[in-house]
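ok so dumb question maybe but i'm new to this and my supervisor (M.) told me to 'just get the structure for Fe2OG dioxygenase domain-containing protein' and walked off. so i did the thing. is this what she meant?? sequence i used:
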Amino acid sequence: MLIRKTLEKYSKTLHGVSMQLFKLISINLGIEPEAIGKMFENCTQGIRMNYYPPCPEAREVLGLAPHSDATGLTLLVQVNEVQGLQIKKNSKWILSNGEYNSIEHRTVVDFEKERLSIKAFHSPGLRAMIGPLPELVKEKTHKYKTIDVQDYLKLIINSKLDGKCLIDHMKIQ
Ligand SMILES: O=C(O)CCC(=O)C(=O)O
Ligand SMILES: [Fe+2]
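this is what came out, is it supposed to look like this??
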């Protein structure tokens, strides 16, 4: 019962944080402050906790294969402060530093230390359309498709953890 209450509070707080971040991202993009937040009004939130035990073969294995998250915004906390999240930048794996684009990332494990992480994934409401924000592509050619949530979910299921940004599958060829 206690964990449920704590998680509910945690989830609500993180939702609030994500809404604030959507506002700041919109302002930074030069669009109406509520533009992105509106899509997340009936947001679906998923929370995942990962436990990576210490591994004697740490150099030979990965904690999690390269992938990009299929959700709108992921908030992550490295619970016991053991580093292990890496992003791909200029073809190199480096420690993550947070970007707007859905960056390819993976996790590595440690020889001696266990690692814990908690993620909160925020996805738009089930009626949303997934694609470039109209405000951002006014006079430009659309580089990405716009599809409904159902088709987007199909795309996620069909594109396994293959390291490619899911966004590549949305590109108009
Ligand atoms: O454990 C981490 O640091 C990241 C895990 C992750 O990328 C994910 O769960 O999607
Ligand atoms: Fe991820």
